[in-house]
């Protein structure tokens, strides 16, 4: 069967594509993931520590081995020395040397040296070692030298016998010493491997249970939630611990729940936008017909009709303008303001007429605005701002929850300070509840009444910010709610200033 190229398999480049993609098995994730890395790192570091310990330990082992040979030779030397003046037979000397593993034994006593036993005495020695006081660095150096280059050298070793002034000296081959050092190194290596594997395994399972397991649960929850964020079953459920991972799990749960809530709101907003666009299409047609009919009212020769016709026309024009821009909020932006000087008192009176406050309600509407005060703003957008604030105030006063014995009043005041016009909308209602204050200017969360959407304040804020101004809730000692709007004049360009001054001259 011919081999198929990887290009014929769409999952060759992307293993996650198609139905053939498989998640790695648990053992592969365990040993190839973070826990596997921890296992091998533990083994590596323990072996590194054992290697660092090995050098002084093998040096100590070499000194002990040499000291044992020296002690054995010293015991034989003392016995032989006690036989003076009888000389030890050659056969017995050979047996003594074979028992001690040496080629010659010399006893140093009272400033003299005596050769007690010897056989096949070499002509020269390759190395000499004094075991009286060996520094650690020298011991390690000599041990490494024996391991790498020893095995066929003749060495001379000498040192004291116990705490006396008597010394003993032996001549021997270092083959047995090197063999013993290799055996010791092999045992240390095997023991180090066993200790490292055992320790790493314990650490592996402990960390895997305490750390890796919860992390794997967190990552798994993130992957499931990202694949289907609207499914409540994919929200992470922690174990209620107090460590850092438990805190991270609780934060992840809170974030996922908040994200699901936001996604649900966005989905509702999308459905609402579609519904509004459909309603807006038909509403524009209805308002266009009403606009044509209202135009004919201007020709009616009736004083009452002539007084209300202009206000009715302006109201319908505003409604037509609103239907044209009704989807601007859904696009997260309002149209740029078309600024011009606007008489604020006239605009406020239009707001009063639009509110149509029932005279029997006992609610007053007061304007504290100079007749000549003008604001540099888009008249229609500023009308929407003040109308939204006054309508909220009227709804609060209509609820009948104002302070006992106080007048129910809406007051709109304004003044100019330099190039900034400050507008205040004040009421004597029950005030704004705490939840509405915490979510001020937030759509669908900042409403002060049941069933409200909070869009009025959100739209007002966006329109004021488009003018480069500010809007804020003002704390007041008495009951009620007060908003302050500050709108600056547009900066005048140098060319406009020169043209104006030229015309005035």
Automatic annotation (TrEMBL):
**Single GO molecular function:** protein histidine kinase activity
Q: Where in the cell is it found?
A: Membrane
Its EC number(s): 2.7.13.3
Reaction catalysed by this enzyme? ATP + protein L-histidine = ADP + protein N-phospho-L-histidine
Q: Where is this region: Disordered?
A: 1-21
Would you kindly state one Gene Ontology biological process term found in this protein's UniProt entry? signal transduction
SMART domains cross-referenced by the UniProt entry: HAMP (SM00304), HATPase_c (SM00387)
Its keywords, alphabetically, are:
ATP-binding, Kinase, Membrane, Nucleotide-binding, Phosphoprotein, Transferase, Transmembrane, Transmembrane helix
What's the top EC group for this one? transferase
Q: Where are the transmembrane segments?
A: 38-59, 188-207
Q: Which Pfam families did the record assign?
A: HATPase_c
Q: Which residues form the Histidine kinase domain?
A: 278-491
Q: One cellular component GO annotation, for this chain's record?
A: membrane
Tell me which InterPro entries the record gives. Answer: 2C_sensor_his_kinase, HAMP_dom, HATPase_C_sf, HATPase_dom, His_kinase_dom, Sig_transdc_His_kin-like_C
Key word ATP-binding present: yes
- Keyword Protein biosynthesis included in the entry's annotation: no
- Can you give the residue ranges of the HAMP domain? 209-264
Give the source's domain of life in one word.
Answer: Bacteria
* Protein name per the record: histidine kinase
Phylogenetic lineage: Bacteria, Pseudomonadati, Pseudomonadota, Alphaproteobacteria, Hyphomicrobiales
């Amino acid at each position: 069967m011919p081999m198929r190229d990887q290009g014929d398999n769409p999952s060759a480049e992307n293993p996650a594509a198609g139905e053939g993609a498989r998640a790695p098995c648990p053992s592969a994730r365990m040993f190839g993931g973070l826990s596997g890395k921890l296992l091998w790192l533990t083994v590596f570091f323990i072996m590194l520590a054992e290697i660092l310990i090995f050098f002084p330990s093998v040096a100590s082992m070499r000194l002990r081995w040499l000291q044992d040979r020296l002690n054995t030779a010293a015991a034989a030397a003392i016995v032989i020395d006690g036989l003076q003046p009888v000389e030890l037979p050659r056969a017995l000397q050979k047996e003594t040397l074979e028992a001690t593993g040496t080629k010659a034994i010399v006893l140093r006593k009272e400033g003299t040296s005596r050769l007690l036993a010897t056989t096949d005495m070499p002509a020269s020695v390759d190395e000499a070692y004094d075991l009286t006081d060996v520094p650690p660095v020298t011991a390690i150096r000599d041990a490494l030298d024996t391991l790498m280059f020893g095995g066929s050298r003749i060495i001379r070793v000498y040192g004291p016998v116990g705490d006396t002034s008597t010394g003993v000296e032996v001549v021997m081959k270092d083959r047995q010493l090197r063999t013993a050092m290799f055996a010791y190194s092999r045992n240390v290596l095997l023991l180090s491997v066993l200790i490292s594997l055992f320790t790493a395994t314990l650490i592996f399972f402990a960390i895997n249970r305490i750390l890796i397991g919860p992390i794997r649960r967190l990552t798994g929850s993130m992957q499931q939630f990202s694949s289907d964020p609207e499914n409540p079953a994919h929200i992470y459920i922690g174990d209620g611990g107090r460590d850092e991972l438990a805190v991270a799990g609780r934060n992840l749960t809170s974030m996922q729940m908040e994200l699901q809530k936001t996604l649900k709101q966005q989905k509702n907003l999308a459905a609402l936008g579609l519904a509004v666009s459909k309603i807006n299409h038909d509403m524009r047609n209805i308002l266009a017909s009403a606009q044509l009919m209202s135009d004919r009212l201007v020709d009616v020769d009736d004083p009452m009709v002539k007084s209300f016709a202009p206000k009715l026309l302006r109201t319908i024009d505003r409604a037509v303008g609103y239907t044209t821009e009704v989807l601007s909020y859904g696009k997260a932006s309002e149209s740029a303001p078309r600024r011009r000087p606007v008489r604020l008192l006239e605009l406020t009176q239009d707001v009063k007429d639009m509110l149509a406050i029932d005279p029997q309600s006992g609610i007053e509407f007061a304007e504290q605005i100079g007749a000549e005060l003008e604001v540099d703003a888009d008249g229609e957008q500023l009308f929407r701002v003040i109308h939204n604030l006054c309508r909220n105030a009227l709804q609060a006063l209509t609820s009948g929850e104002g302070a006992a014995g106080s007048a129910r009043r809406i007051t709109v005041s304004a003044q100019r300070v330099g190039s900034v016009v400050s507008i205040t909308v004040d009421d004597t209602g029950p005030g704004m509840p705490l939840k509405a204050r915490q979510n001020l200017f937030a759509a669908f969360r900042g409403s002060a009444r049941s069933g409200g959407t909070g869009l009025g304040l959100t739209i007002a804020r966006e329109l004021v910010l488009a003018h480069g101004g500010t809007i804020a809730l003002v704390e007041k000692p008495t009951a009620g709610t007060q908003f302050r709007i500050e709108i600056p004049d547009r900066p005048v360009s140098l060319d406009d200033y020169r043209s104006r001054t030229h015309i005035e001259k």
